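for the writeup, i need someone to sanity check this before i put it in the appendix. the sequnce is what the collaborator sent (i think, or maybe the updated version? ugh). structure was predicted straight from it, no edits. if anything looks off just tell me and ill rerun, i have time this weekend
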Amino acid sequence: MPDDVIERGPELYARIGPHELREVITDFYGRVFPDVMIGFMFAGKDRQRLIDKEWELAATILGAPDVKYTGRPMRTAHAQTPIFGGHFERRLQILRETLRDHQIDPDVQRVWLEHTQALRSQITKDAGSECKDTSVVAPPPSAPDPDRKIKLGRK
């Protein structure tokens, strides 16, 4: 097994545990709901249900024994809301910041974030949120003629 592959299972899950995982997710949704960029998408949603389903999903991907995700498939759950790449990236950034602020084990962070990124195509049809450079590159300016007379003042 390559050195950069992190084994998912009870050992990885134990690095965060059920209580800390719930604290992180609760804090995460406490940041998402009022967020100026994506909070509107959560208006009217049942916060506790989202916390519970996110806990199941995260616990499952981290390798928690005897935990199963019981929510809807990602594509189905997000089909009614148009989610753009920027929305997805903002949510991912809030998750990164929350994991960092709680000083979560780096391997747990990596597995969680990589799994989240792997779900992108199921959550948004927007393939990317990066700006593409569509400008035409102008040729470099020619070197000035050293013998050219310089006009000073008015005509």
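The domain at 10-123 is CATH 1.10.490.10 (Globin-like). Helices lie at 10-14, 17-32, 47-62, 74-77, 85-101, 106-118, 120-123.
thx in advance!!
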